[in-house]
Amino acid sequence: MNRILVSFFLMFLLLEPVIAHEVPKKAKAFFISPPDGATVTNPITLKFGINGYLIAPAGENIHKAGHYHVLIDLQHDLSMDEPIPRDKQHLHFDQGETQTTINLSPGQHTLQLVVGDEEHEPFEELMSKKIKIFVKK
Questions:
Q1: What is the per-residue pLDDT across 114-130, written as a single tens digit (0 to 9) for each?
Q2: Are 127 and 31 in contact (CB under 8 A)?
Q3: 18, 54, 78, 79, 109 from 75: Cα distances, Å
């Protein structure tokens, strides 16, 4: 009997990270603003939204929680198996921020919101649709 209990306990410990980051089917990340197709001027305020999941600072392993990243003008797909890079096209919001202000060059840009886990690995289910914005001079 003790072996069975130990086996179940070990199985739970091994599966816990998978269970902790299970994304509900109805969960969704999105931009509150600006809307898709908006014409904006600098500085640009980005507001993030999420349904069915929680936002927490990076590094905190909280059940069903992650933090935002904004992808700017990406020309390639984001790897789902590696941490999100940290550069001018991959903005991290490590403190659980739900909005930011940025400046972009004049012209058309694409933005995409993605939620990542405590190690900055993205949740494919929590990637917003890409939006296009036009920045006026």
A1: 999 988 999 999 999 99
A2: no
A3: 30, 28, 9, 13, 11
Which amino acid type is present at position 122? P
Q: Is pLDDT at 9 greater than 80 in this prediction?
A: no
- In this prediction, residues 5-26 reach a mean pLDDT of 57
Peptide bond into 34 cis (omega under 30): yes
Q: What is the pTM of this model?
A: 0.83
Please report where in the chains the tokens 């890409």 appear, as a residue.
130
**Which domains does the chain show, CATH number per domain?**
23-135 (2.60.40.10)
Rounded Cα distance between 35 and 91, Å, is 19
21-48 per-residue burial string, b: 16 or more CB within 10 A, e: under 16: bebeeebbbebeebeeeeebeeebebeb
